[in-house]
Amino acid sequence: MAEPTTEAAAAPMNGAESLVRTLVAGGVEVCFTNPGTSEMHFVAALDRVEGMRCVLCLFEGGATGAADGYARMADKPASTLLHLGPGLANGLANLHNARRARSPLVNIVGEHATYHREYDAPLTSDIEGLARPMSAWLRTGMSAEAIGRDGADAIAAARTAPGQVATLILPANTAWDPGTGVAPVPPVPDRARVTDDAVAAAADALASGEPVLLHLGDRAVRGEGRVLADRIARKTGAKLLAMTSNARIDRGAGTVPIERLPYPIDQAIEALKGFRHIILVGATRPVGFFAYPGKPSLLAPEGCRTHTLATPEDDQIDALERLAEAVNAPEVALPDLGTRPEIPTSGALEQDAIGAVIGALIPEGAIICDESLTTGRNFFGLTKASAPHTWLQLSGGSIGVGIPMATGAAVACPDRKVINLQADGSGLYTVQALWTQARERLDVVTVIWSNRAYAILRGELANVGALNPGPKAIGMLSLDNPAIDWVSLARGFGVDGRRVETLAQFTDALKHGLAERGPFLIEVVL
């Protein structure tokens, strides 16, 4: 962690500088910003403090989504800087995704000076009311003398397991009045150790002779967690299955393969059919993404018992180690994942062929940011034997996270290639993040699935029983009148790109994007 110099610490500073120095000393080294007038003293302080990288985003949803992607890969918080209540409101959707991903994030929101709020200026709003649903910790600064300590408390809250959104509201006068220096970050408690009873209950279920599912999430789907879960499964005959949406999964050659619970409700019910016990390890119980007429909200079969070995807040690795010992699970060699797919040399530009190309070409160490939705449902299985890589997903269901998430991941890991698999409708929510990629020269390949529709919603029309849709309904799900020119959009933001309409063109464009350094976009016309 960066420490302030003696000279800097001794020099007079205002509250904003005290806050920035506290953030840097506490290990918060990146700020994704979209500031306004009330944040100008914080902006000015960034030039007086070494160690804080400032990344400008053109839209607040880009800033919050990038902070989410950064946190998932860095395993520590970045900060945001947003302008008053409307700026926060613009960023709420991706704060929702960050909350669901359990990403540590210090969310700083400017506010009118404390004495100015009573006059109801045009930008006055209930910032705490807007922030509360997405924030595990929330505080409005009341003085410049205390704002450094407020920032330190926000860092500790963000780092509290499994990771939280901490929102600090910064009134303008707490930034410009004299501050008091750097505040130390309070100790962050370790993850809780699960009880012996929880381990025993899971062991009893595994010994029951009945079908058992180990349902995994959080740290249990990353390297060490999955190896332990695989040992237990192979010893007991249990099956492994990850949650439908996961913040981060480490995958590819040299890892334990794992499938996810399918998103479509009928497929999810089928996948869980027959299990008599579901053991949750860092996961939440399987529920339908939406309610559907005549279909259950809880997806486990009737009579199936759910056991919680470890919550996302708990120490899942310790819990799995103790469970492995309880069932006498031996050390075992990692399973053979087979070989990565061959690149198809002919055929149509369809899902399985696209997935095979991706599976063949993923470079070692790549980070996949997946907001494919409909087009990418088969990609997971086709990439299980690819070179080792990390897979990030849309975790909260609020579309528009993919391009910003890739942006933040690239800031966190500048030595790793980032590949953003992006649905076109979702990408349009936060397309401005391409400009940030160009400005920061980030190494991101964005692949747009240009089916020119909200394709996932066409299927949902039938799922919810809305039969016989007419032209108005179909028109609300269509993006082809006029068709959106993604390559022109990308170039307008400073990112080069290609449009492809055949499998051979896609293969060539992806090879080109992976070989070059810097942002590149491929529009795949489906």
**What is the level-2 CATH architecture name of the largest domain?**
3-Layer(aba) Sandwich
Largest sheet: 7 strands, mixed
What radius of gyration results from the CA coordinates?
Answer: 24 Å
| Major beta sheet, strand line-up | 9-13-12-14-15-17-16
Distance between the termini: 47 Å
Strand content: 15-25%
Q: Let me know the number of strands.
A: 17
Which residue ranges are poorly predicted, with pLDDT under 50 across at least 5 consecutive positions? 4-10
When the domains are counted, the total is 3
CATH superfamily of the largest domain: Thiamin diphosphate (ThDP)-binding fold, Pyr/PP domains
The backbone outline, from C-alpha atoms, is globular
Helix count equals 21
Determine the CATH topology of the largest domain: Rossmann fold
What is the SS-derived class? alpha/beta
Give the mean pLDDT. 94
Estimate percent helicity: 25-40%
User: What is the CATH C-level name of the largest domain?
Assistant: Alpha Beta
Protein name: Acetolactate synthase-1/2/3 large subunit
Pfam families: TPP_enzyme_C, TPP_enzyme_N
GO molecular function: acetolactate synthase activity
InterPro entries: THDP-binding, Thiamin_PyroP_enz_TPP-bd_dom, TPP_enz, TPP_enzyme_TPP-bd
